[in-house]
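Sequence dictates fold. Next comes a concrete instance:
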Amino acid sequence: MFNPNELVLEKIRAVEEYDPATSELTGRYTQIEEPSLKTSAEGTTVTDAMGAEIATFYKAQTGTFSFSNSLFSLDLAASQFGTEKEIADADHPVTVPVSEIISIEAKTGDSANTTYKAQLKYVPVGTAGAEVKYVKVITDNNTFGETYTAAAAIDQNTTDKVFVVNAADKTLTFPAGTIGRAFVQYERKSDSAVKVSKNTNGIPAVKSLLIHALFHDPCNTNSVYAGVINVPRAQINPEAVEISLTPDGKHSAEYKLQKPYCDENARLFDIIIASED
């Protein structure tokens, strides 16, 4: 009979999120650090006329499961933000902001047709003729100088600080004599991108969790047992989401565990250990 008691917990292998209605996998996290499973309850103490405690009754039992993921996870961020990860394709591109420092150079044809152009890396999108609205010239001492504004055409007889956008060619044309470097910001479309948004009205959805673990027999550490903590109802806590923006930072998360309201068994979670058959 397989009946283990005390075991060595090697690690949590993965945390999986599922839609409880459809059983569809919605997120999987594999770089788990500092996992912790806690339960709590509200106690009501019954006393006699002298204040002596007779009994304590407990209700409103809940739990929490928390961990840190070693890597930043877009799926986990989407779950915390109460949104879905948007995956771009050819029919549904994602708009991507771009900031570039570009060179304005003289492009010589014949003597009467020298133009002063800058080449963008991507095709800009937006209002036709103003896909790039402003350009900041960078001075010799690496500070911002003149600001140029998008225009329909350039009048070479004036000193207006304007430029013309040709989105299809990814070029900006400047007045005669404009040479140097410039800072430009615009947007492009990409069919190879993902996006996760945080909206102030986003509420994390209720999920079910499978928390996979590896256990060892303390008397024979070569004996490995697969374990899983099955949580039927868990909602990620959005109250204090912190995503470290450093290379060695962690992506932490906490779930609040509650029994399914209509579950007569009032089950918070199951811990299941199985031998390898």
The mean pLDDT is 91. The chain is about 5% helix and 50% strand.
